[in-house]
Write a structure and sequence with these properties.
heterodimer; A: about 290 residues; mainly alpha; two-stranded antiparallel ribbon; about 5% strand; globular; B: about 350 residues; ABC transporter involved in vitamin B12 uptake, BtuC; two-stranded antiparallel sheet; 2 strands; about 70% helix
């Protein structure tokens, strides 16, 4: 019983942590750019594939964790400049459809370059065993990933809370005009927000690679889960996203443990229930568009 | 919003239906051409292709009611086609195989019954969350169709559909197994649905929907219950999608979870974009272009989802009004902005 409890708690923290990184990335992009990035799941898959390739050509998993997000971030910059910038003055429906198209382009490119078969990221020797926690035992790599998630979240908190760029980002997501009037280059802040969001998606991909294996449409389920997270948490609310991510992680782990097949249906039901009670999400700010 | 409806003399049938004389003459000509097609075109393959275009055209038109008129985005409208198809199929297999009309009614009503609570939750959340939720709920229906093996047959899909006779007022017309018969049946249903939707969209109700699309806040200030009318638009769109689903399974004789997938949903969205949203007839052109394009692309490349995605991106960037917006490009007065 103790073993199962430990298993469920740690697994839900790992899953919830991945959701946190994805959901916060989506929310940073949305908050600053008013763009809901439907290609976020595809970028996550891309991150996992870059991670796989870095390890495959002889790199270390931790090196992959560093390089893959940077490549995805550069790609995010290109996407922002080429596709998102011309859309800024148009209705939000167009960016939604545009990024939806982008998702299929990236999915197709992944299949084209890496093929459709499932890939496994090769982990270093020390991560392959299990560690015993009292009477329970737990795979080492999951613990390492959990620590990695914690490090990413801590770094993100530092960035948003302590640095000038982070403070500008938070301010610009509230009142961009005011930030601009203070002499800050708001466009620059918005672009860096988009790139940061994409990098977070790439990071989540590398972290999740060893957990769920790497396959071309791995981003689809993650995209939907991230949406569930940001909608439940309240669009644009970072704290809401964290709470919702941990909650969904827990519920999904429990549901997968007890009723494997239709676990996601339970999650969607929970989402519907929360939205009936609080239509704008747990910490929704009351404004949507 | 237009007051033309009230001001216009109600003597002419065209004006009563809304839309110009030229538009209805074009529609009539198209219907006649489509109706004689199976008798002059010997190749069954093309007849089935046109049949598919008509069904997906109906689905795309139903999405246009939502996207082009109410300003709401549904990423997985095909999920409601799937619901209609499964409901019709299961009803005919397990309950009553005799009547095609009852089966279609069950398919449509079931789809609307499912869409009602989903729509009720969705309209409460606002515009963007609405779109995200359509994706989440669509995936939920997809998961159920895929995993509930005992009911839906899972990956194998629903098979062994009976082929009831197509009857009208108790008069037997043909068997639904006959491809020409099901083609003409599709055309007839399509025409009914098109005229019905056109009439609704060009009624005061349609004007209210357009007002919500243009400015939700202002619409609520003049006393429109925005949520209720969004829900009405959603129900109309889902009901039509369910009808399309009923015909889909009658035409295919089979349905699998594949029709409810996310990628298929992107296809439907692209049909609307390709043809031009906010026109009702545009999506039919879009459906024809898309299905022919898909047919051609998949015959020479495996990676056609890259092309489909790229075309969506290019359309949004350069031709947001679709084929219906092409004439405006040559007209100096209208800028392409929305």
């Amino acid at each position: 019983m103790f073993a199962i409890t430990v298993d469920i708690i740690l697994n839900s923290l790992v899953l919830g942590g991945i959701f946190v990184i994805m959901g916060v990335g989506l929310n940073i992009i949305y908050g600053l750019n008013r763009v809901m990035n439907l290609a976020h799941g595809a970028l996550y898959a891309l991150g996992a594939y870059f991670g796989f390739s870095v390890v495959a050509v002889g790199g270390n998993y931790f090196l992959a964790l560093l390089i893959a997000p940077i490549i995805v971030g550069i790609l995010g910059l290109v996407i922002e400049r080429v596709l998102i910038t011309p859309m800024r003055k148009r209705s939000m429906i167009y960016t939604l459809i545009l990024t939806y198209g982008l998702m299929f382009v990236i999915d197709g490119l992944i299949k084209f370059f890496w093929g459709v078969e499932t890939r496994f990221i090769h982990l270093p020797e020390f991560m392959q065993g299990t560690v015993s926690l009292g009477s329970a035992s737990y795979p080492v790599f999951r613990l390492v990933i959990l620590i990695g998630i914690a490090a990413v979240v801590a770094a993100l908190m530092l960035l948003l809370g302590r640095t000038r760029l982070g403070i500008n980002m938070r301010a610009a997501s509230e009142i961009p005009e005011m930030v601009s009037a203070c002499g800050v280059n708001v466009r620059g802040v918005q672009i860096s927000g988009f790139v940061l969001g994409c990098m977070l998606a790439g990071t989540a991909g590398v972290l999740a690679g060893p957990l769920f294996t790497v396959f071309p449409i791995m981003g689809h389920d993650m995209l939907i889960s991230s949406f569930v997270v940001v909608v439940i948490g309240g669009l644009g609310s970072l704290r809401g996203a964290v709470i919702a991510a941990l909650m969904i992680g827990f519920v999904q782990t429990l549901a997968e443990f007890f009723i494997t097949e239709m676990a996601m249906v339970i999650v969607y039901m929970l989402m519907a229930l929360i939205l009936v009670i609080k239509p704008l999400g747990i910490l929704g700010e009351g404004k949507f568009e | 919003m237009s007051n033309m409806e009230q001001a216009a003399p109600r003597s002419l049938i065209f004006e009563r239906l809304g839309g110009g004389k030229a538009m209805w003459i074009t529609t009539a000509v198209m219907v006649v051409i489509l109706a004689v097609l199976p008798f002059i075109l010997p190749n069954r393959f093309y007849i089935r292709l046109v049949n598919e275009i008509m069904i997906y055209g109906l689905l795309a038109m139903s999405l246009d009611v939502l996207l082009g008129y109410t300003g709401l985005l549904s990423f997985m409208h095909n999920a409601y086609l799937g619901l209609g198809a499964y409901a019709t199929g299961l009803f005919m297999i397990h309950i009553w195989p005799e009547s095609i009309w009852v089966a279609m009614l069950v398919g449509t009503v079931f789809t609307m019954a499912v869409a009602l609570p989903v729509g009720w939750v969705q309209v409460r959340t606002g515009g963007l969350a609405f779109a995200l939720l359509t994706l989440a709920f669509g995936m939920m229906f997809y998961t159920v169709a895929w995993k509930w093996y005992d009911l839906t047959g899972g990956d194998d899909g629903l098979m062994g559909l009976p082929q009831p006779d197509i009857t009208l007022f108790g008069l037997k017309l043909a068997s639904s197994g006959n491809s020409t018969a099901i083609y003409l049946f599709t055309l007839a249903i399509l025409l009914i649905c098109f005229v019905f939707t056109w009439r609704v969209i060009h009624s005061p109700l349609g004007a209210v929907l357009e007002a919500i699309r243009e400015n939700e806040e202002r619409a609520s200030f003049v006393g429109i219950n925005v949520r209720r009318y969004k829900l009405i638009g959603w129900m109309l769109a889902c009901g039509l999608a369910g009808t399309a689903g009923s015909i889909y399974i009658l035409y295919r004789g089979y349905t699998g979870p594949g029709v409810m997938g996310a990628f298929e949903g992107a296809g439907v969205l692209m049909m609307v974009l390709l043809g031009g949203m906010g026109t009702l007839w545009g999506p039919f052109i879009g459906a024809a272009l898309f299905i022919v394009l898909k047919d051609q692309l998949s015959s020479w490349t495996q990676d056609w989802e890259i092309f489909i995605g790229a075309i969506v991106i290019l359309l949004v960037l350069f031709l947001p009004k679709g084929v219906a917006g092409v004439p405006a490009l040559f007209n100096r007065q209208s800028g392409g902005e929305d």
